[in-house]
Amino acid sequence: MSRLGHFGGLGHFSYLAVLLGCLVATAPLEIxxxxxxxxxxxxxxxxxxxxxxxxxxxxxxxxxxxxWAFDPRRTTGVLLPGGLPLDExxxxxxxxxxxxxxxxxxxxxxxxxxGDERAGAEQVDGEQVDGExxxxxxxxxxRGPG
Amino acid sequence: xxxxxxxxVGVVVSVLLDxxxxxxxxxxxxxxxxxxxxxxxxxxxxxxxLTGFDIVVYDPDAIAGPRLVFAPVEDLLFGFALVTQxxxxxxxxxxxxxxx
Lengths: 146, 100
Description:
Chain B: It comes from Parafrankia soli. Chain A is mainly α and 146 residues long. Chain A has four helices and three strands; from the N terminus they run ααβββαα. Chain B has one domain (3-96). Chain B contains three helices and three strands; from the N terminus they run ααβββα. Strand 1 (68-70) of chain A pairs antiparallel with strand 1 (56-58) of chain B, so a sheet runs across the interface.
């Protein structure tokens, strides 16, 4: 019996349910505050990937050393090499995505800068990002320094 | 290394990534700390569920001992490292690719 008792009969989907809750709770930010996080999938992928590598490495070490363990009754049971549950890998995707959504939500509401606003003029190697065009970016007026 | 030692290393690496390696200096901005204050509240909620329901369990020998909402205090440092590194990369890629 855990400190909080049983987790509502979700069984193997307990961990996934927590992650799904995070995604559902933050999704409205993308629509209501136009955070444009999911709308920039390339940048999002490039931001999550290095963090995923580092923290999966940390996790594998921690599992190998027995720092923590996962209840097989409350996780999917899908284990990747090193005994890493699939649930845990998804954690390292979901939490970073939610964190970026939070940052962009605060930026949208306050107009405070993150330091990347001046980047508009700095195209690297003339590289253009697919998708969005200037006219498709209604949030810009509320965000940049002007 | 214990979880405690690794968690401290994680925070130091995150700070160095922001201030020295990528030089995004996000940690100097109120935008970051305001967002982090919101994030850390929800981290305590979700982490409290994961640890309170024993979805994740910790070896008492790997942690210092004190707990916050069921989770070892080390999780706060772990979460700070995870969130900070993500946001630093997000801003860094934004700088490189015209905020896109």
